[in-house]
Amino acid sequence: MTEVAEQLRGLPLLAGLGDEALQRLAASAVEVVVEAGEEVLTAGERPEGLYVVVAGRYEVRRPSGARDVAVGVIGPGEVLGEMALLAGTERSATVVALDRGRLLRIDARVLDELLADRATVRAILRTVLSRLHEREALLVESAKLAALGRFTAGVVHNLNNPAAAVLRSAGQIVEVVDELDLPAVALGSPAPLDPLERSEREERLRAWLETYGVPRAWQVARGLVEQGWDSARAEDLVADAGAAQAVATLREVARAGTLRRLAEQASTAAARISQIVDSVRGYVRLDSAPVGEVDVNAALDATLVVVRPEPGIRLVRDYATSLPGVEGYAAELNQVWTNLIDNALQAMGEAGELTLRTRPAGDGVVVEVIDTGPGIDERVRGRLFEAFSTTKPEGRGTGLGLYTVYNTVVERHGGAVQVESRPGRTCFRVRLAGRLRRD
């Protein structure tokens, strides 16, 4: 009895209760053993009690349209079903055991008797209000992320088609330029030039063209240099074809060269847009199931497209080349990488070194996000993963970033998060198992 009472005392919901109240609850508690896949609570049912989790993990699923969506995982030391019981409403979520586990069931009538005592009511209400505040903040954050996801989906859809069209058109322009009926002597095989040599060659050609009265000589000179021409070769063409014919040919060559260069630039830019679109699609996983195999290296690169380091930040990618895929909720893990990378960049400001390191660990992976910022004060390090705990100035952070990291990695994926910090080096280390536990 005393052992059960102490277990109950450790629960935030019941921490304020006196010894007598805890003993009464302990006397009425009934141990329940559940198997993996068993439904503990069902959405829509009337609550007849609450459950204290002793062992095992339990997935919370809320109705969303025609299906249930997993919104969290509850572990030992937490309570199931208390909000509906205290509010006197139907349960809003279904809870399913992910493992074989044990629970303590406390009957609603016993709790009702305790609630007749004013001190007990005050103690429980303080905890309930705190949890409601926490839940409200998380819901606001979730709503923002959902809205961002919908907006991103629209942007990705609207960008991909025009980018593909530009890429096709640029390729066709290059083909047309290659088919132009220019004299054989005009075809160039440009050799690589350093910027200084290119500039000097363009300047000499510009001066030579101006002696023949060529309009916009600087533009023509640039196009000719891009096709491998110089003033000596231009003089040879004049000697062979005459000044008038040579100038006309050179202008056509310059136009063709400029057109090719612009088409190639457009093609490169369109290809880059397509790469960014693919990275963003991979980041938010718009077209994949909630659970699947995650390529952590690719996910980190996709995150860097969204959270780009400042020019003064040196980026080091130390990725394992034979990293195994891990099973998980890809979009949620991407939010983990976003929070950790964004925190690291903010800690360093405009200069520093960001290292992203991955390595295999059994059938899973380890990811390290390391920055060269000022470090984290030891006094706040132990509270980093609590809700609303933040080291950022007021108005710069919600205090939910690392709380989300911890819950996603530990509660949602059964992994682990560690932090090591000293001035000049802070390392957040995430461990993920290869498979989500289901039995």
The percent of residues in helical segments reads 40-55%
Model regions low in confidence, pLDDT < 50 over at least 5 residues: 393-398
Tell me the number of structural domains: 3
Going by CATH, the architecture of the largest domain would be: 2-Layer Sandwich
Number of helices: 13
Mean pLDDT: 76
CATH superfamily name of the largest domain?
Histidine kinase-like ATPase, C-terminal domain
Text of the CATH class of the largest domain: Alpha Beta
CATH-defined topology of the largest domain: Heat Shock Protein 90
Oligomer: single chain
CA radius of gyration: 33 Å
Main sheet specs: 5 strands, mixed
Structural class: alpha+beta
Strand-residue proportion: 15-25%
β-strand number: 15
What strand line-up does the widest sheet have?
10-12-13-15-14
Protein model, in words:
It is a single chain. The protein has helices spanning 2-9, 19-28, 82-87, 108-114, 118-178, 195-211, 217-226, 231-241, 243-284, 296-306, 330-348, 378-381, 401-412; strands at 30-34, 39-41, 49-55, 58-64, 67-74, 79-80, 94-97, 101-107, 291-294, 313-318, 326-329, 352-361, 364-371, 416-422, 425-432. The protein has 439 residues and is an alpha+beta fold. It folds into three domains: 2-116, Jelly Rolls (Sandwich); 175-275, no CATH class; 288-432, Heat Shock Protein 90 (2-Layer Sandwich). The strands form four sheets. It has a five-stranded mixed sheet, covered by helices on one side. Helix 5 (118-178) runs antiparallel to helix 9 (243-284) and helix 6 (195-211) packs across helix 7.
